[in-house]
Q: What sequence folds into this?
C-alpha cells in the first residue's frame, strides 16, 4: 500500500507483511512458507490458481501479529465483525474477519494503485471461497490505451425479443428477486414517432406486435455524465475508455446519481441482491458483474469484464436480429465507426449536453 | 480551570432541570421517548432488510425522508429572521425569542442530518463522506456543499447560544464583540444553507420540474414563512406553560415577517403555475401530474389540494392587520401555513420531480408504515432535543438557574 493514500487507512497487518518471514520471499522457499502451504491445500485446488494462492499467503503472513491488535480492537469496538470477537475462533473465521475488516476500511477503487486493486480483488475472491467453497475469477483490468467504447442501436432491426435483457441479467449477476434489468425495451406505436410517453417498457405478449416498433435504452455512458458530477464521494466515474462505472464498495447509497441521470440508466439495490449459486457468472470484474450488496448503486458497464478482453457485451452477442453494434470509436476500421459515418444517427436528449456514446439509427 | 468547573456545574444543573418537571412535562417526554423507540424499531427493520421496506423504487428514488429533510432545512434557516433584528439591528423585542429560534434551528438541523442518514443505503460507510478521511467530491457535488453548510450552521447555532447562556449562567453580561460577528455570519449562512439545498435539486438537468431558476428564491420565501410560523406556535406554548415572559409585541413582529414571506411565496407560486400551464410543454408534465394527475394516476391530488387552499387562506387572513393581531387567528394561520408549506415543499416538490420518469413512465409513490414510523421517530427526536434545550435556556434566561460558588 502506498504511503500517499488519499483516504484513511488503518494499515493493519500490512506493516509487518514483508518482514514477518525471515526469508523475505513471498512464495515458498523457507520452512514457514511450506508449512502454510500444506494448510491451504485443503481449501484450494493446487496449482491452478497461482495468483490467488500467493495472495492468500500474503494475508496469512501478516495475520499473526495483526490479529493481536485486531482482536483487541474489535472486542472493544463491539461486534463489527462478530466472528473475530472469539479468541478461540478457528483460522478460517479469523481470516474471514481480517478480510472483512480490510474491505470495510479500504479506499476508493478509482484512486487505488494497480497493486492495491489486485489486493482487493484477491481479498474478494478469497472471501467468496471461504464463504461458499467455490472459486470465482475476478480481474481488475484497467482501460486500454486508444480505446473509447461506443454503441449503436438499429431501430429498424429490433423486434423486441428481449434476448438482450435476459443475457444481460445472466451475465451481470443482477438481483433475481426484484427482477432488476439494466436494459429497457420500449414498445412504440407505428405512426406516433418516438413517443416514449405512450410506449410500454414492460410488455408480456408475443413480439413483434402488429403495428409496433421497438427501441432499447440503457446507460448511455455519457462523455459528460451528470451522475459522476453529483456523487458526493466519487464512487462513480468515467474510465479512460469511456465506461461510466461504480465502485460498489465505496458507494454510500444516497441515490443522488439516480436523480441526476436523464436516461434512467441507474439501478439501486433496495434489498440484498440474490442470485442462485448455480446461475452466478463466475468470470467477474471488480467494476462490473461481481456480486453487489444491499444499499448500493449499480448500472450497465458495457460488460466491462467482456469488453476489456475484446469481446462484445452480452446484449450485443445475444441479439438475434443484429440490432446492436458495439466497438472502439477510435478504431477507424470498426463497425461502429462505419455506422456513424454512413448512417443518419441521432442520440436521445442531446439538448442536455450529456454527450451520450449511444447512437440510434435506421436502415 | 474555573471554566471547566462552571461547565461541569452547568451540565449537572441542566441534567437536574431536564429530568425534573411537572406531570405534564414527564408525560410529554415519555410520549416522545415512546415514539422515538418505535422509530428506532422501524429503522432497525430498514437496516435489516434494506430500503426495500420503504415505498421508494428505482422510478421514485427519493421520498418521505428527503421531503422532510428539504422542509426542515428551511425551518433551520428561518432562525436567522430572529437573529438579524436582535443582534445586528439591536431590536430588543426579539431578544427573548432568539434563543428559542436558535434552539429550534439546532433541533431542525439534527433532524435534517438524521433524515439524510436514514435515507442512505449504506450508513456503515458514511465515513467516505467525511472530508480528508474519505473522498469528498468538492466542489463538484452539491451534496458536499450541503454537508459543509449544514454542519457549519449547526456549529454556529450551538456556539452562539451556548456562549450567551454560559456567561448568563455565571451572572455576567455577554460581550457583544464576541457574539455579534458570529450572529452576522449566521445571517449569511442561513441564506446559504437554503440556497445550497435548493441548488441540490435545481442543478439537475434531468428533472425539469426542479430545474428552474425560481426554486432557490421560492425555497427562501417558503422557509421564512414556515420557520417563523413554527416559532410563533412554540412561543405560544412556552408563554402558556412557563414563567418565560414573551410580550405580544414580539409575537406580532414575527407575525409580520411570516406575512410578508407568505405573500412573496404566493406570488412565486402564481408565477410558477403561470409558466407551467399557460403554454404547457413536455416539461410541464410533472406539474400536471401534481395538480391534476396523469393518465388516471393521481396519488398527490389530495395532498396538493389540501396545501394550496390552506396556503392561500392563511396568507389572506394574515394580510389583514386586524385578523393578524388577534392571537387566536394568528395561531390558527401559523398552523395551517406550516402544514401547507410542509406538504408543498416536501411531498409536493420531491415526488413529482420523479414523475413522470425520464422516459415518461408514471410509477406512483406511497410511503410505507416503516417509513412513516422512522419519520415520526425523527420528528419526536427533534421535539425531544428542542424541549431539553428550551427548558435549560429558559431557566437561565429567567435567572432561576445560576452558578453557585
A:
Amino acid at each position: 500500500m502506498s504511503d500517499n493514500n488519499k483516504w484513511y487507512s488503518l494499515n493493519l497487518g500490512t506493516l509487518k507483511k514483508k518482514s514477518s518471514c525471515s526469508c523475505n520471499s513471498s512464495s515458498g522457499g523457507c520452512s514457514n512458507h511450506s508449512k502454510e502451504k500444506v494448510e491451504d491445500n485443503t481449501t484450494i485446488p493446487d496449482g491452478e490458481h497461482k495468483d490467488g494462492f500467493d495472495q492468500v499467503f500474503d494475508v496469512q503472513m501478516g495475520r499473526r501479529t495483526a490479529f493481536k491488535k485486531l482482536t483487541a480492537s474489535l472486542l472493544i469496538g463491539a461486534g463489527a465483525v462478530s466472528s473475530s470477537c472469539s479468541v478461540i475462533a478457528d483460522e478460517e473465521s479469523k481470516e474471514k474477519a481480517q478480510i472483512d475488516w480490510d474491505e470495510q476500511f479500504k479506499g476508493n477503487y478509482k484512486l487505488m494503485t494497480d497493486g492495491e486493486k489486485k489486493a482487493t480483488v484477491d481479498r474478494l475472491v478469497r472471501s467468496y471461497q471461504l464463504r461458499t467453497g467455490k472459486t470465482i475469477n475476478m480481474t481488475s483490468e484497467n482501460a486500454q490505451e486508444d480505446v473509447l467504447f461506443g454503441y449503436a442501436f438499429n431501430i429498424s432491426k429490433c423486434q423486441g425479443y428481449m434476448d438482450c435483457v435476459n443475457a444481460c441479467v445472466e451475465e451481470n449477476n443482477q438481483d433475481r428477486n426484484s427482477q432488476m434489468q439494466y436494459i429497457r425495451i420500449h414498445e412504440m406505436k407505428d405512426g406516433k414517432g418516438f413517443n416514449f410517453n405512450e410506449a410500454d417498457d414492460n410488455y408480456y405478449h408475443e413480439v413483434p406486435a402488429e403495428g409496433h416498433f421497438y427501441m432499447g435504452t440503457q446507460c448511455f455512458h455519457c462523455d459528460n455524465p451528470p451522475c459522476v458530477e453529483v456523487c458526493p464521494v466519487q464512487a462513480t466515474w468515467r474510465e479512460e475508455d469511456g465506461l461510466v462505472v461504480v465502485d460498489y464498495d465505496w458507494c454510500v447509497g444516497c441515490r443522488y446519481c439516480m436523480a441526476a441521470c436523464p436516461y434512467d440508466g441507474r439501478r439501486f439495490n433496495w434489498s440484498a441482491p440474490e442470485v442462485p449459486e448455480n446461475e452466478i457468472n463466475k468470470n467477474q470484474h471488480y467494476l462490473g458483474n461481481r456480486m453487489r450488496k444491499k444499499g448500493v448503486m449499480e448500472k450497465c458497464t458495457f460488460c466491462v469484464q467482456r469488453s476489456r478482453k475484446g469481446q462484445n457485451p452480452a446484449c450485443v452477442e445475444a441479439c438475434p436480429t443484429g440490432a446492436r453494434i458495439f466497438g472502439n470509436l477510435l478504431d477507424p476500421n470498426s463497425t461502429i465507426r462505419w455506422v456513424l459515418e454512413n448512417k443518419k444517427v441521432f442520440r436521445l436528449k442531446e439538448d442536455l449536453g450529456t454527450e451520450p456514446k449511444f447512437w440510434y439509427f435506421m436502415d | 480551570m474555573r471554566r471547566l468547573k462552571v461547565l461541569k456545574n452547568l451540565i449537572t444543573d441542566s441534567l437536574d432541570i431536564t429530568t425534573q418537571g411537572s406531570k405534564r412535562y414527564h408525560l410529554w417526554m415519555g410520549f416522545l421517548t415512546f415514539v422515538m423507540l418505535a422509530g428506532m424499531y422501524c429503522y432497525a427493520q430498514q437496516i435489516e432488510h434494506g430500503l426495500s421496506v420503504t415505498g421508494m423504487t428505482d422510478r421514485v428514488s427519493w421520498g418521505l425522508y428527503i421531503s422532510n429533510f428539504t422542509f426542515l432545512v428551511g425551518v433551520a434557516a428561518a432562525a436567522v429572521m430572529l437573529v438579524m433584528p436582535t443582534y445586528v439591528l439591536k431590536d430588543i423585542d426579539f431578544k427573548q425569542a432568539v434563543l428559542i429560534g436558535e434552539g429550534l434551528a439546532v433541533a431542525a438541523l439534527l433532524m435534517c442530518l438524521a433524515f439524510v442518514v436514514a435515507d442512505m443505503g449504506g450508513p456503515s460507510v458514511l465515513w467516505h463522506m467525511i472530508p480528508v478521511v474519505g473522498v469528498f467530491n468538492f466542489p463538484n457535488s452539491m451534496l458536499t456543499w450541503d454537508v459543509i453548510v449544514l454542519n457549519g450552521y449547526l456549529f454556529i447555532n450551538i456556539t452562539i447560544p451556548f456562549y450567551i447562556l454560559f456567561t448568563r449562567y455565571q451572572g455576567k453580561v455577554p460581550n457583544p464583540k464576541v457574539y455579534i460577528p458570529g450572529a452576522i455570519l449566521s445571517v449569511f449562512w442561513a441564506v446559504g444553507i437554503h440556497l445550497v439545498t435548493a441548488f441540490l435539486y435545481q442543478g439537475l438537468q434531468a428533472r425539469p420540474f426542479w430545474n428552474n431558476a425560481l426554486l432557490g428564491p421560492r425555497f427562501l420565501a417558503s422557509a421564512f414563512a414556515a420557520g417563523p410560523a413554527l416559532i410563533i406556535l412554540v412561543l405560544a406554548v412556552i408563554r402558556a406553560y412557563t414563567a418565560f415572559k414573551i410580550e405580544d409585541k414580539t409575537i406580532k413582529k414575527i407575525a409580520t415577517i411570516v406575512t410578508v414571506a407568505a405573500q412573496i411565496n404566493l406570488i412565486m407560486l402564481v408565477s410558477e403555475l403561470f409558466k407551467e400551464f399557460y403554454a404547457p410543454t413536455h416539461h410541464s408534465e410533472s406539474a400536471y401530474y401534481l395538480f391534476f394527475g396523469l393518465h388516471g394516476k393521481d396519488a398527490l391530488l389530495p395532498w396538493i389540494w389540501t396545501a394550496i387552499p390552506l396556503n392561500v387562506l392563511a396568507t389572506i387572513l394574515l394580510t389583514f392587520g386586524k385578523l393578524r393581531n388577534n392571537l387566536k387567528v394568528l395561531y390558527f394561520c401559523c398552523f395551517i401555513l406550516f402544514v401547507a408549506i410542509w406538504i408543498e415543499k416536501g411531498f409536493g416538490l420531491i415526488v413529482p420531480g420523479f414523475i413522470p420518469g425520464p422516459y415518461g413512465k408514471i410509477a406512483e409513490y406511497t410511503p410505507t408504515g416503516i417509513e412513516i414510523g422512522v419519520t415520526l421517530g425523527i420528528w419526536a427526536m427533534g421535539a425531544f432535543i428542542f424541549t431539553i434545550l428550551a427548558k435549560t435556556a429558559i431557566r437561565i434566561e429567567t435567572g432561576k438557574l445560576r452558578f453557585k460558588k
About this structure: The mean pLDDT of chain B is 92.
